[in-house]
Amino acid sequence: xxxxxxxxxxxxxxxxxxxxxxxxxxxxxxxxxxxxxxxxxxxxxxxxxxxxxxxxxxxxxxxxxxxxxxxxxxxxxxxxxxxxxxxxxxxxxxxxxxxxxxxxxxxxxxxxxxxxxxxxxxxxxxxxxxxxxxxxxxxxxxxxxxxxxxxxxxxxxxxxxxxxxxxxxxxxxxxxxxxxxxxxxxxxxxxxxxxxxxxxxxxxxxxxxxxxxxxxxxxxxxxxxxxxxxxxxxxxxxxxxxxxxxxxxxxxxxxxxxxxxxxxxxxxxxxxxxxxxxxxxxxxxxxxxxxxxxxxxxxxxxxxxxx
Length: 307
Known about the structure:
The protein is an alpha/beta fold. The protein has helices at residues 13-28, 52-63, 85-93, 108-115, 131-145, 163-172, 192-200, 212-215, 235-241, 283-306; strands at residues 41-46, 67-71, 98-103, 120-125, 151-156, 178-183, 206-209, 221-224, 260-262. β5 (151-156), α6 (163-172) and β6 (178-183) form a beta-alpha-beta unit.
């Protein structure tokens, strides 16, 4: 049966936990999984620029023994000639066994999934969803904290357009004992629909502030984000807001000793380079975890499709 992952809520808590367990097994014994996808092909359909997500999908498939085909920008595909996402999905289904797709338009991966005959993984659609980044974040939190419940997490920066923030809040809302701190300029606050449909609907305690340092002592996890130039229609607004929060060692003086600092990357200047050598900086570990969780997800979807 073909299964698609377009939103993190497509996965139950039990399925997320199983993926994390499988990823940990792969980390502990990579050789045991090195031929699991022999003969399988991943198609990376990236209509929007990406470094980490595209390369981690490719590395994940290669390390499972499979191969990769695809494109890294819309201009390299027939989209530049006017081909629809639906037709591209049908065509690629003839060549590959699974698709990872990134697109600037929200909902485009769903259109692909409705027309493909192979599993489709949403690798990011506009400011909407990024489920594999969320799985990456969850695996990182689990490996660093040993649990996915009972902690306070602060989201800092662009909470309005940040699809990684929206997806992770959605995922964490299904675990117990989670408290959320929202740190952003007024113009980049978390959308009201996320607060209403997720936080308020599920009774998750949250606070909003514009002051990072005032809430730093209570955080177990700090999730930094960049202000995304590509999501702004007005460059003047971007320039005014882009340096709203810059994390440096001074701002970490009152942070917990076991704080976990995450960032989906790319980083511009919102985390000072001096923080990189602090043991609390986990964002490059996060990158590596992304490869392992994508290995677990592709392996699971391909095994389900083969049944």
